[in-house]
Amino acid sequence: MSEFVVHSVPGSPFGRAVLATFAEKGATYRFASVPPGTMKSEPHTSRHPFGRVPVLEHNGFTLYETQAIIRYLDRVLSDPALTPVDPKAAARMDQLMNVCDWYLFQGVNNVIGFHRIIGPRLMGLTPDETAIANAMPKAHLVFTELSHLLGGNIYFVGEQVTLADLLIAPQLAFLAETPEWKPLTSNAPNLVSWLRRMNDRPSLQMTTWERVAKLSKAA
Ligand SMILES: N[C@@H](CCC(=O)N[C@@H](CS)C(=O)NCC(=O)O)C(=O)O
Fold first, then answer.
1. Nearest alpha carbon, ligand 1 atom 12
2. Among 39, 68, 120, 169, whose CB has the most other CB atoms within 10 angstroms?
3. Model pTM greater than 0.90?
4. How confident is residue 217, by pLDDT bands cut at 50, 70 and 90?
5. Is the pLDDT of residue 2 over 80?
6. pLDDT at 22
7. C-alpha of 13 from chain center
């Protein structure tokens, strides 16, 4: 069986979505840690011209953008399927994945998650409270909409886990570690229960920041 290589960094929510997809499929991969401070230079920019993670390599095929990667994995590792067959359910999954990238990440997690977690933990920065406060109106809107779309479902699109759950869970798990989580979920208890269910899945347990950091040290 050909080797999958994931270039990423421990703690990356997008990278975690890829690793969790492998775990859901029961498939193996090699984790190639991108050394700190090298994401914007060669050789990484040859893999990812925008200097981000994750990047997948498979049989000489290189792919960046998390949605593209996990959709590719769902096609080449077909069992269990993580995309619904029903066109409406598949469209809902696609919609949620775009809500994640366009609204949950941009302006919410890349601000709150950065200032609360990444900056202090990796760069010794003090959280910028003004930037966090400015991100909160959009964050409330995103949480309200995610809660609405989840409704009474077990997973975002129904009873089966899909790529949408695997993309969104690492982003919300990040925010759940911040003081903003409580006000953001005060009217969204279904999101709290959903995240608990996701965190209980082996695929999320195997891909925590700590577990991936250990994996990357051992590699
Ligand atoms: N649209 C990209 C976003 C990837 C992304 O932003 N990754 C973060 C880590 S979770 C990153 O590489 N950040 C480095 C930076 O912003 O310079 C994807 O879906 O893969």
1. 52
2. 169
3. yes
4. confident
5. no
6. 98
7. 4
Whether residue 65 has its Cβ less than 6 Å from ligand 1: yes
Collapsing DSSP to helix, strand or coil, 37 comes out as: coil
pLDDT surpasses 90 at 215: no
**Nearest Cα residue to atom 2 of ligand 1:** 65
Atom of ligand 1 nearest to the CA of 13: 10
Does pLDDT of 81 surpass 60? yes
Q: Are the beta carbons of 4 and 72 closer than 8 angstroms?
A: no
Regarding the beta carbon of 33 and ligand 1, being less than 6 Å apart is answered: no
Q: Is the CB of 13 under 6 A from ligand 1?
A: yes
Residue 1 has pLDDT above 70, yes or no: no
Nearest CA to ligand 1 atom 14: 52
Atom 13 of ligand 1, residue of closest alpha carbon: 52
What is the predicted pLDDT for the residue at 216? 83
* Contact residues for 19 (Cβ-Cβ < 8 A; gap 6+): 6, 8, 29, 31, 206, 207, 212
* Pick from 109, 85, 90: nearest CA to 168: 109
